[in-house]
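Justification of computing resources. Each target in the renewal requires a structure prediction run like the one illustrated here; the chain below, 279 residues long, is used simply to show the kind of job we budget for.
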Amino acid sequence: MYESEGAVWLRTTEFGDDKDRVLIRSDGEPTYFATDLAYHRDKLEREAERLITPMGADHHGYVPRMRAGLAALGHDPDSYEAPIMQLVNIVDGGQRSRMSKRKGEFVALDELVDDIGVDAARFFMVQRSHDTAFDLDLELARSQSQDNPVYYVQYAHARIASILRKAAEEGAAGGRPAEEAALDDEALDAAAEPAERALVRRLLELPGEVATAADRRAPHRLCAYGMATAADFHAFYRDCRVVGAAPATEAARLGLCVAARRTIATTLGLLGVTAPARM
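Resulting structure tokens:
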């Protein structure tokens, strides 16, 4: 650090920045850079392994100076990640809202949550990659139809819960829990229809999808996976009789329903979205 022109500077040029940066202005006030640097240093001293700091597209130039500042403090600059976020445009009634921070024309997140609910807000906001601008259609987010992606996935979970309730009421699977009946040798040997096999393959993809989403900082992959799993379940339910099928087949299909319910609930849970049992 050094003083010049009445201000306190950090010599970030020695650590890859294109110019030195002011920490304390000549009027004695700290800059945003100083407070941000202190914040990230505090996180590292609390043994944070990564510093993931989302930033707007108009702040991409901030990244090199922050990495240089961390290096100047003796920390690994590679621990700092700054996903660059693009804008979300609000569309209502087919009209895109014109937003301007300078004019005070913008939609606060609280307002969005009050309008469409927490589940829809979370799902829609992470449905697209953070580096892609997109239009959030409020009419679609409010609707309770198959066209609404979060409703579509939640409905699949609720439908499975309904099937399992019906099975329990009718004494399906010999009155035993579906998970237990599905492990019988006869159930495991039951012939599988193409829709069953497709659903099983999809369910087995969950661990890999979660790992990839985490590694790439890409939660939108889980939205896509949830929708694909819901679609595969709906196709399975359309093509394959569950309750009332031959005993071994019924047991196997009830077990598959249980696995699908758990997978969808896990996927929604990772996104912070509820998995309702009734809709």
